[in-house]
What we know:
The chain is α/β, with parallel strands linked by helices.
Amino acid sequence: MIEAVGLTKRYGAKTAVYNLSFQVRPGTVTGFLGPNGSGKSTTMRMILGLDKPTQGRVTIGGHPYNELPNAPRQVGALLDAKAVHGGRTARSHLLSLAQLSGIPARRVDEVLGVVGLQEVAKRRSNGFSLGMGQRLGIAAALLGDPQVLLFDEPVNGLDPEGILWVRNLMKSLAAEGRTVFVSSHLMSEMALTAEHLIVIGRGQLLADMSVRDFIAHNSAGFARVRTPDTEPAQREKLSAALTEAGGQVLPEPDGGLRVTGLPLPRISDLAHEADVRLWELSPHQASLEEAYMRMTQGAVDYRSTVDQRAGLQQQPAPGMMPPPAPVPGQDQPGWYAPPPPQGQPQQPPAPGENPYATPQPPAPAPALPVAPPPPASTTATMDKTDETQKDDAR
Ligand SMILES: Nc1ncnc2c1ncn2[C@@H]1O[C@H](COP(=O)(O)OP(=O)(O)OP(=O)(O)O)[C@@H](O)[C@H]1O
């Protein structure tokens, strides 16, 4: 299990991760989501002991990564698939990693087979495509047959067959009882791969819940109703009955009606009472992508000036954590720290509760208390080191 407690990382005046606490449990694929620059890679680097937290701690199986005995046998990671000596062949790259951790050479051939690179094992990796590089990075992560696996954007550059393969690989690793933590910007893929999600925005926790609950909390379900196309009067009659009963009714382009504010059985009863025949009455829920866009819309740092979402800004669903607002002075030295996300996200609808209710605007967010600035000496010293490390890595 991976456990982060109050994890914070500052680079000079920039707070990349703030007071992040979460657990990644074995046996399920946990997706790690957040807009560009929200702190996912920084968090993963701290988990792997590559960056030192400014505050807080993160452990794997109860120990910081750097204190794990023979860590490569316990934890495997794909952070940057390009971080490979391009002059080496795929096999010699893996062999050198294996030798450093006392892993037998036969395991190298095994993982080359697992990722489908056996045919090109003797080719230099600088001639590899993006997808082949990803496969090599995944092979390196699997080398020590570790119980804990971290993947930063593993499907980046893979073709549809490769994406399907990664999806099945992640699931089978989790099914074997391993801890699998995977970041991705591909929501449709995450919806199919992950069971649990940790979502961050501007370095702070926005959600820690199952994919199912995440979608339920961050999107308004609706019912779709269709009356016989040949009888427009029936549609009008039903629309009036539903509106009178407190529902919100919107016409859909195909002649159907989108209804919120009324549960499905009530819609059915109202149609029956109005003597209207139904061709369709179906429950609908947003996709993970819609729910994610809705939750993170206030936490996006980089947005095109022609962003189509500009016209789609909505009030968040009831109970969801409001996305962290830009913190005044955050980029200035000595900025005051915002509090951690307040309260718990909304629970799924209780039995008998109306899942199709119209979302209500959330209560106003509490005012931010002013916290003292971080001690300048610690931050400044470490930031310099980290900045240098990042430059070196480039
Ligand atoms: N070594 C560093 N020095 C200074 N700032 C840094 C450093 N590493 C990361 N940052 C900053 O911290 C923030 C979080 O970056 P990070 O790479 O963790 O985000 P991310 O969620 O992984 O983004 P993406 O989805 O684009 O990969 C960014 O504003 C980034 O510029």
